[in-house]
Amino acid sequence: MALLVLEDSSDPWRGKAFTSSNPPKWLKVEGDDFSSKSEYLWEKNSGEDLNFLKVYHRMLQVGITENLGNEKMEKMVFFFSSCGEESGFDQERWEKDYKEACKGFRNRGYKSVLEIVYWDLRSSN
């Protein structure tokens, strides 16, 4: 699923992903085919708790560096997890991080903050 989203994105986001390491790393997914790209992503992810605030900061940094206006800034980011209940997702921390991210984006002239969709692939809910 993640690879389909990555390939459907526009530049400068196309083919790039964040790792689930702390701090999260933003990297170009390497490989010649679906299988090799999938393996590459699997090897790069450590399964640590994802620091959403650092992801927001990195996305903002890319927007500023690439001189992206509101229309070119990514609107939504997907995070796919297969950790189930062990993922350590903390709703309270996420809400606090989101409020801080909103301030950062607005202070840099962006009208909105990208949405993060956290999808736990093991959850049945």
From TrEMBL:
<feature type="domain" description="DUF7788">
    <location>
        <begin position="1"/>
        <end position="124"/>
    </location>
</feature>
<protein>
    <recommendedName>
        <fullName>DUF7788 domain-containing protein</fullName>
    </recommendedName>
</protein>
<dbReference type="InterPro" id="IPR011205">
    <property type="entry name" value="UCP015417_vWA"/>
</dbReference>
<dbReference type="Pfam" id="PF25043">
    <property type="entry name" value="DUF7788"/>
</dbReference>
<dbReference type="InterPro" id="IPR056690">
    <property type="entry name" value="DUF7788"/>
</dbReference>
